[in-house]
Amino acid sequence: CKSSFTDLKKVFETFVDLNSQVRNAQTACQKGLSKHKSTCKDLLKLLQKQRAANTITEEEHAAKRAELLDRLSQLDAFAVTLPMNTGLLAWLLGKVNVTLPHMGDRFKYKMEYETFKLKGTIAIIASALIMLLVSHRALDTAFHLLLGCYYFTLTVREWILIANGSRIKLWWRVHHYLTIFLSFLMMQWPDSVSYDTFRLQFVYFSLYLGVVQLLQFRYQLTQLYKQRSLGLGDLMATTTELPNKSTFSVLIIVLFVAYVFQLYNSSTLWSLAASNNFEYHI
After folding, report:
1. Which of 25, 84, 97, 104 is deepest in the core (most CB within 10 A)?
2. What is the DSSP string of 196-250?
3. Do the beta carbons of residue 215 and residue 251 sit within 8 Å?
4. Rounded to an integer, what distance in angstroms lies between the CA atom of residue 106 and that of residue 99?
5. Where are the alpha helices (DSSP H) in 103-136?
6. Cβ–Cβ under 8 Å, residues 171 and 129
7. End-to-end CA, the chain
8. pLDDT tens-place string over residues 156-185
9. d(CA 25, CA 31)
């Protein structure tokens, strides 16, 4: 037992030493990356000035610019493997390293994100169905709270994915920010004629949107799996821009109906706002 404990102690000391070396190497790499990025950006500005002054030819400018942009792209690829915590995560969690060290762990976390989206969407659909059967303000408040918490958690998970190499579109994240705000705004909408007028329409819209999200989830997951199988897709990608024509055409029709539904919601809210008695929530 004593010899095995001694061996364990040696292994642990080796681990601590290697961990310290990794941290020192990460710090050195971060400083080097920051310096190289700054230098490349300065050189790009200098190239632009030289071209404006006609001190270099168009061909020389294009070649050097392409080289610098390629270098910046390589530096961005290096940065993905280093600790990163920016944006919303830095505000919520502080300077905590959320970068997973191994690609397998990152892919596993991305799949957990996809599973969370699926379970969350099913919960929203189930809640909307209950709201169709039972009309009670406490139930409505719980539903709006569910929406707000779901999209808030989704946003945090997406920032962690971004820190680990996912390229999630800015408009997608902005949509989540707006949904969080509107969900909590709906929670504060008092009982009134305007609320009762819009309530059932909103429930139907939430139900339809949940079904659309399920279709999107199935479509994106299938397409990403195909791309990974062919060696074409990024392991950390959450969406694909390569459509399957047969399925994509159906999805476009479903999305078009959702957009028309949104316009109808806007029209209803505008009509309520135009009335004499309305709340600021509209």
Report:
1. 84
2. HHHHHHHHHHHHHHHHHHHHHHHHHHHHHHHHHHTT-S-TT-S--SS--HHHHHH
3. yes
4. 8
5. 103-133
6. no
7. 71
8. 888 888 878 777 888 888 888 899 998 888
9. 10
